[in-house]
Amino acid sequence: AQSVAQPEDQVNVAEGNPLTVKCTYSVSGNPYLFWYVQYPNRGLQFLLKYITGDNLVKGSYGFEAEFNKSQTSFHLKKPSALVSDSALYFCAVRDMVNRDDKIIFGKGTRLHILP
Amino acid sequence: EAGVTQSPTHLIKTRGQQATLRCSPISGHTSVYWYQQALGLGLQFLLWYDEGEERNRGNFPPRFSGRQFPNYSSELNVNALELEDSALYLCASQRRSEAFFGQGTRLTVV
Question: In percent, how much of chain A has pLDDT > 90?
Answer without folding.
Answer: 74
